[in-house]
Write a structure and sequence with these properties.
By secondary structure, the protein is of the alpha+beta class. Helix content is 58%, strand content 19%.
């Protein structure tokens, strides 16, 4: 009859290390894949919310600038634009009459607002154009640009926090496996 004989200490230790490496590697790979999928899903959800916000904000701005545009109240137009530009997702707002740009504002890279010298480049920006009417007569257009940059910043910050938790989890897992396998 065969008895289970304990493994020599060097082989037992070698087996422990192989088990730990296999479990940690498998867990790490699975967590990285799930994190990447979650990041992609969260980014898509945030982009869709941004599109909905763009549509809502554009309609609100359009209702606020139509009257001042009709009456050529440029100061009123600038006040309406400035108040809406307090929203951090807005990059630029441009109001045009039938012939030229009447009022505009753009967020600089450093945060403060400035009059837009030209129409912003749409690369990386979401854009909504609304035709402005007064008594069913076309009086101009409104172009609103939003930036998805803050979405990426929020997701990066979230990813950093989750990475810290992940490494803490791996550390605890390795520690627990060493303790369990040591016995």
């Amino acid at each position: 009859m065969m008895k289970n004989q304990p493994l020599p200490p060097d082989k037992a230790r070698s087996l422990q290390i192989i088990i730990i490496i296999t479990l940690v590697t498998t867990t790490s790979l699975l967590m990285i894949v799930f994190s990447a999928l979650n990041y992609y899903r969260e980014y898509r959800i945030a982009q869709e919310r941004l599109r909905v916000s763009l549509e809502n904000i554009s309609r609100q701005i359009a209702s606020g600038v139509a009257q001042p545009l009709q009456t050529r109240n440029i100061d009123g137009l600038n006040l309406v634009i400035e108040s809406f530009m307090q929203n951090k997702i807005l990059y630029s707002v441009v109001v045009k009459d039938l012939h030229r740009t009447v009022a505009s504002s753009v967020r600089s890279e450093h945060g403060p607002l400035a009059p837009a010298g030209q129409t912003p480049s749409p690369a990386g920006l979401l854009h909504q154009r609304i035709l402005l009417t007064h008594e069913k007569k076309l009086i101009g257009s409104l172009d609103v640009y939003v930036t998805p940059g803050f979405i990426r910043e929020d997701l990066r910050r979230d990813l950093l926090v989750k990475s810290i938790y992940f490494f803490f989890f791996i550390f605890v897992l390795i520690l627990a496996l060493f303790i369990v396998l040591k016995q």
